[in-house]
Every structure is written in structure tokens, then in C-alpha cells.
Design a protein that fits this description.
Blueprint lengths: L1 H10 L5 H19 L4 E4 L3 H10 L6 E4 L3 H10 L16 E4 L2 H6 L3 E4 L3 H7 L12 E4 L4 E2 L4 E2 H9 L6 E5 L4 H5 L4 E6 L3 H11 L4 E6 L2 H23 L4 H22 L10 H12 L4 H10 L4 H8 L4 H16 L4 H11 L4 H11 L2
Parallel strand pairs: 1-2, 1-4, 2-3, 4-5, 5-8, 9-10
Antiparallel strand pairs: 6-7, 8-9
Helix pairs in contact: 1-2, 10-11, 10-12, 10-13, 10-15, 13-14, 15-16, 16-17
Length: 366
């Protein structure tokens, strides 16, 4: 009743009809999203996807989960564990409707959380059409760029599947899947241009061991997530070369400054605070943690592994590798000064000497 009264009061002034109708619609949407228990689907089978399913099991009676591998489907149904990724995480099979049928899984959900490595996203969901996303809300937990389109994840869904900007969200923050599986306290940030949807995302992720915040800065967070993987890879190269903590601290300071300058140039927002968890916090955990794939990949390069050998040894995707090429090509348009990204690109894609490139970089740091 409250919302009908508000609509009548504010819509009396016909000169402001459009704005007030929009306001009323937003209020009603907020109410609907908070009242209804959403049906949620997770798309992806890796470590972070498994950790997200574990989080959601704390709040939702049913989670729809798409994975590609038949052996994961069978193991989850029988044992409640993912045999290929994060097998330490115990899940309740009774809560999980797991399938390798992508269209059917998405059809059952109101909110779809994508946790597929960005390098594989386009091919993974190529069978989907615009109609499959009708009336759906999309959340990205992907830390990369779609290489085929040279787009960030939210922009990709907007342009390729016509998902409305207000139905898009991002979940991010300093969050290694291994620690989430162990229920170690973690802070995540839900971002969306639609504040009601951001709150909805935050509510389904909030548990005794996961604290959540909300923000509107969806694009700034996506840039930060992509860039921090490149910088973690670079820091790993230094670590692999035997650099100590003193010099690494200086290097990371330069990385943060470069990241801030890049994001503020490409997507300025005067209200953005980089000294918060989804920016600085995520950067720090990715750069320093032993769980960081990008740091590990960089360490291998710094120890003399070829790019191809490091990729084969990793057995998991280091998003920073693909992000480096995407950001390099994107920056051909923006022309932001990014000496660290340039060096990583030269090492990974131009077969430049990692020792010479990193030593040259050291001489330019302040």
C-alpha cells in the first residue's frame, strides 16, 4: 500500500511525470527484490565458483550450478565435493541443483553469477541468445577482460546480450577461494548502478564469515580487478628474480599510483576511494598472497620459465596474462602512461628479456 500512495502523490505533477514515475518504479523494484527470495545460478566450475557456491549455501535453500565437467556433477551429487577444484570445500548436495546443461540452468534463475575465466567466457556461453537473458539479473565474479571483444565483463553483457545496465552487478574484494572454503573472515563489495540490486547481491553473500559492502562504482571496480592481476604478475616476476620485501614495497607503491592514474583517466569518478577493500585491499592480497595465481605465474617467469611452460605448470588460468594484452591494446586509444604494464606486455608477448626489462623498470621508479 505504501508504494501506491507514494506513486499517486508524486505523479500528480504532470510536468515531472517521467522523473517521478521512475522514482516510484525504483521504490517498487526495491521492495520486490527485498521481499522475494531470488533463485540464483552459478556458472563456472573452478575454485572461486566452488567457494561462491559454499557462501550461497549459507543463505539459500537451493543453488543452481552449471559446470562443464561430468565428473564434477557426479562427485557433487555423491560426495558434496568438487574433485578438480577446491576439493577441501564441503558442500551440501541437497541444496545444489548441479547440471552441465547451461540453458536449463540459466532458465531456472533470477540472478546469474558468472565465474568463468574471462579467456573462456565468450566460447562458454556462445550458445546463449539475447532472449535467454530476458528478465535476468547478471553478476560478474570474473576478474578479467573478454579477449574476443576487448571489453570488460559488464560491458560485454550489455553489448552482446542486451542486458540492461541496472540489471548488472559485480562482486569483488580481497578474497582467495582457499580462505573462503576455510570460513576465514572475508570482506566483499557488491557493485551496481542499481542500488537495490547492489543491496540484493550483498545480502545473498553476507554470512558469519563474509561481510559485505555496496557501491555504485561497478566500472571502477572492474578496472581495478583487471589491473591488479597484471601488477601481481609483475610483482611475482620480481619475487622470482630474488627481489626482497624492501624493493617490492617500492614497486607496489608505483603499481598503485599507475593503477589510480589509469582508472581515473579512463573512467573518472570524483567519489571513488582507492584506499578501500575492493581497490587497495584486493591489490594487496593478490600481490602478496601465496594463493595468488598471478603472483605464482610471475614467480615462474622470474625464475626463467617460458610463458608456455608456466601456463602448463599452473594448470589454472592466470587472468593477468590475458589482461595484459587487453589493457595494452585498450591503452593505444587512451595513451595513459603505464610503464609497468608496458614492461609486462613486452615480457609476455614480445619475448623481451625479463631481467633487462625489470631492471630498466627499477631505474625509472620513484
Amino acid at each position: 500500500m505504501f508504494f501506491y500512495i507514494v506513486e499517486i502523490i508524486f505523479c500528480k505533477n504532470t510536468t515531472l511525470f517521467e522523473n517521478k514515475f521512475y522514482f516510484c518504479t525504483k521504490l517498487m523494484r526495491t521492495a520486490d527484490m527485498n521481499i522475494l527470495k531470488p533463485k540464483v545460478a552459478v556458472i563456472g566450475s573452478g575454485t572461486w565458483a566452488t567457494a561462491i557456491v559454499k557462501i550461497l549455501c549459507e543463505n539459500l535453500s537451493t543453488i543452481y550450478w552449471w559446470v562443464r565437467e561430468p565428473e564434477i556433477v557426479e562427485s557433487i551429487q555423491e560426495t558434496g565435493r568438487n574433485p578438480l577444484y577446491l576439493s577441501s570445500a564441503a558442500l551440501n548436495p541437497k541444496q545444489i541443483k548441479i547440471s552441465n546443461n547451461l540453458k536449463k540452468t540459466i532458465a531456472k534463475a533470477d540472478i546469474i553469477i558468472f565465474v568463468v575465466p574471462s579467456a573462456y567466457l565468450h566460447n562458454t556461453i556462445s550458445e546463449l541468445k539475447v532472449k535467454d537473458f530476458k528478465n535476468k539479473y547478471v553478476v560478474s565474479a570474473i576478474k578479467g577482460v573478454v579477449p574476443e571483444r576487448m571489453e570488460f565483463i559488464s560491458k560485454y553483457f550489455m553489448h552482446y546480450f542486451n542486458v540492461d545496465a541496472e540489471k548488472l552487478g559485480v562482486i569483488s574484494g580481497p578474497s582467495h577461494a582457499e580462505e573462503v572454503a576455510s570460513k576465514k573472515t572475508t570482506y566483499l563489495t557488491a557493485a551496481s548502478l542499481n542500488s537495490a540490486f547492489a543491496e540484493q547481491i550483498a545480502s545473498i553473500f553476507k554470512t558469519d564469515f563474509v561481510r559485505t559492502n555496496v557501491t555504485h562504482d561497478i566500472f571502477g571496480i572492474e578496472f581495478s580487478v583487471v589491473l591488479k592481476n597484471i601488477y601481481a604478475l609483475a610483482a611475482g616476476i620480481f619475487r622470482g628474480m630474488g627481489v626482497g620485501d624492501n624493493l617490492l614495497a617500492l614497486f607496489n607503491t608505483n603499481c598503485i599510483n599507475e593503477m589510480i592514474n589509469f582508472i581515473n583517466t579512463v573512467y573518472p569518478d570524483k567519489n571513488r576511494n582507492f584506499h578501500t577493500a575492493p581497490y587497495l585491499g584486493d591489490f594487496l592480497v593478490t600481490t602478496y598472497s601465496q594463493h595468488s595465481r598471478n603472483r605464482t605465474f610471475g614467480i615462474m617467469i622470474g625464475r626463467g620459465y617460458s610463458v608456455r611452460t608456466a601456463q602448463l605448470e599452473m594448470k589454472m588460468v592466470a587472468e593477468g596474462y590475458y589482461a595484459t594484452r587487453c589493457i595494452h591494446e585498450m591503452n593505444l586509444t587512451y595513451k595513459v602512461k603505464t610503464p609497468i604494464i608496458d614492461v609486462v606486455y613486452n615480457i609476455l608477448y614480445e619475448k623481451a628479456s625479463f631481467r633487462q626489462e625489470m631492471y630498466n623498470l627499477l631505474n625509472s621508479m620513484q
